[in-house]
């Protein structure tokens, strides 16, 4: 197609676009509208008002060296480099066991000028003996650690506000940030200090498997080593994220950076300031995802929520209000779409709060009232708890083969053979056939079947009866609750055809 044939159509589109801009508002000119579509013409004024609140965090840590810290390389016999390395390692200056200081750099920002409160990442100041805040005007202040949280990688520092006039920034609403919104990052990349970069929100609610509450803002604003702990601003100059991680094969920015959203950070920061530690809500359940197979087995139309795989003994719901096999689909008025939504929402809830929890149990929705415990108090219980769920008695067969598994009564010889805890009850799997549906789901000899389709089993006969009943109901999958030898519970779905 020739240029002369294209031009009339193109001219018509340009005239229409110009008319649309004029109709939208007589005060908006064509160049202004195009500039807005292309992004902000300059962020100089914005950066100028924020950069004083951003600090460079330098830390030092005293370590002891030693000849084992940098071992002499092993070289082939007669290597021409043998003499060189012998000379180097023999004549290293001083005693290798002497203490030496290791320094690192990061970023942070002032959130309270009167109190001298600074926010940064925990990994920036971890194991530091000395912490110093370096300001944009060249001044420096010693910083004291007020509190830290390893789960969200946040830390709170305090400097003496009487020694320097501080500038603070405030948090904004990270929930309002949309993909494509402009953001600005200020930090200390590679120790350069006071560096500004601009980009957009690339994605929200990113899970990068770095912790239990992953919910990152992804941005393409340049974030490099040393930016950790620095702020991510919206165009109103409010902190909507704390820059924490990057994905980079080279160690430099490739346009994939992650920030802790302000919504998650503010609650943690407030707790660290008030108590010096976090005080998170705790439900006392072990959970796993609701897959399509599990949803079908439970009679759910869609796969959503968090499947309760176990209850922590002496926890908030160890009263029967929530049971293994329940699916939590709503917590305190908030929908639980994905399993990872639940730990984050519960953790953000106050300790001792009474909340409504909507569960699906055997295909029926119901609401239970739960009073939350404290996560930090419950973690020791959760890690030590090894109990399983019991079952009914009675048996007519000692062993059976079903769904590719050989199963047997869980008697004393079986407990001894597979080293199964006395707290575990059910039917033991003694063998799994190769290429069977059970093996595909990771079931192994020594696992104990405690429930099938949310009904307890304690004999091989009960297992066979439940499988037969499910087939008669037209079910394609059987939902099994399995216990490990120590009693840790998990759910799996096994095809029955």
From TrEMBL:
Gene Ontology CC terms: periplasmic space
Signal peptide boundaries: 1-35
CDD domains hit by this protein: cpPDZ1_DegP-like
Catalysed reactions, as listed in the record: Acts on substrates that are at least partially unfolded. The cleavage site P1 residue is normally between a pair of hydrophobic residues, such as Val-|-Val
InterPro entries, per the entry: PDZ, PDZ_6, PDZ_sf, Pept_S1C_Do, Peptidase_S1_PA, Peptidase_S1C
Top-tier EC class: hydrolase
Keyword Repeat assigned: yes
Active site: 123 (charge relay system), 153 (charge relay system), 228 (charge relay system)
Superkingdom in the source lineage: Bacteria
Every PDZ domain range: 272-363, 369-497
Primary localization: periplasm
Annotated SUPFAM superfamilies: PDZ domain-like, Trypsin-like serine proteases
Claim: Hydrolase is one of the keywords in the record: yes
EC number(s) given by UniProt: 3.4.21.107
Residues the entry annotates as binding substrate: 123, 153, 226-228
One GO term of the biological process aspect: proteolysis
Pfam families reported in the protein's UniProt record: PDZ_2, PDZ_6, Trypsin_2
Keyword annotations: Hydrolase, Periplasm, Protease, Repeat, Serine protease, Signal, Stress response
Molecular functions (GO terms): serine-type endopeptidase activity
Protein location: Periplasm
Family of this protein: Belongs to the peptidase S1C family.
Protein's name according to its UniProt entry: Probable periplasmic serine endoprotease DegP-like
């Amino acid at each position: 197609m020739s240029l002369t044939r294209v031009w009339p159509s193109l001219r018509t589109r340009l005239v229409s676009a110009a008319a649309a801009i004029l109709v939208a508002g007589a005060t908006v000119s064509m160049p202004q509208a195009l500039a807005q579509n292309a992004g902000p013409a300059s962020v100089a004024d914005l950066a100028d008002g924020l950069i004083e609140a951003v600090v460079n965090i330098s830390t030092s840590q005293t370590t002891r060296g030693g000849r084992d810290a940098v071992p002499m390389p092993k070289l082939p016999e007669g290597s021409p480099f043998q003499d060189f390395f012998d000379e180097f390692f023999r004549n290293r200056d001083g005693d290798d066991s002497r203490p030496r200081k290791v320094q690192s750099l990061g970023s942070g920002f002032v959130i309270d000028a009167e109190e001298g409160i600074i926010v940064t990442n925990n990994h920036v100041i971890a194991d530091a003996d000395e912490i110093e805040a370096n300001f944009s005007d060249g001044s420096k202040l010693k910083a004291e650690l007020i509190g830290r949280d390893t789960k969200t990688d946040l830390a709170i520092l305090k400097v003496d506000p009487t020694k320097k006039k501080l500038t603070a920034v405030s948090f904004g609403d990270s929930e309002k940030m949309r993909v494509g919104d402009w953001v600005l990052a200020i930090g200390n990349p590679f120790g350069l200090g006071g560096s500004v970069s601009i980009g957009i929100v690339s994605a929200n609610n990113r899970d990068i498997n770095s912790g239990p509450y992953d919910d990152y803002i992804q941005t393409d604003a340049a974030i490099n080593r040393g930016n950790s702990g620095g702020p991510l601003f919206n165009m109103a100059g409010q902190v909507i994220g704390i820059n924490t991680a990057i994905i980079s094969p080279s160690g430099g920015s490739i346009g994939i950076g992650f920030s802790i959203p302000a919504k998650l950070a503010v609650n943690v920061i407030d707790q660290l300031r008030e108590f010096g530690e976090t005080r998170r809500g705790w439900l006392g359940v072990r959970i796993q995802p609701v897959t399509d197979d599990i949803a079908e087995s439970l009679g759910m139309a869609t796969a959503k929520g968090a499947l309760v795989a176990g209850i922590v003994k002496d926890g908030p719901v160890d009263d029967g209000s929530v049971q293994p096999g329940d699916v939590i689909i709503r917590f305190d008025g908030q929908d639980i779409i994905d399993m990872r939504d639940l730990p984050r929402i519960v953790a953000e809830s106050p300790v001792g709060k009474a909340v409504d929890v909507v569960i699906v149990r055997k295909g029926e929705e119901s609401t239970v009232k739960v009073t939350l415990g404290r996560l930090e108090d419950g973690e020791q219980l959760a890690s030590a708890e090894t109990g399983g769920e019991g079952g009914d008695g009675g048996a007519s067969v000692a062993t059976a083969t079903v769904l590719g598994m050989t199963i047997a009564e869980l008697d004393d010889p079986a407990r001894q053979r597979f080293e199964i805890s006395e707290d575990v009850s059910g039917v033991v799997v003694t063998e799994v056939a190769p290429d069977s549906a059970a093996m595909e789901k990771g079931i192994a000899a020594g696992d104990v079947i405690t429930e099938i389709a949310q009904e307890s089993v304690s004999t091989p006969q009960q297992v066979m009866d439940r499988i037969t009943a499910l087939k008669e109901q037209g079910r394609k999958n059987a939902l099994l609750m399995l216990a490990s030898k120590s009693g840790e519970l998990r759910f799996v779905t096994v095809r029955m055809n």
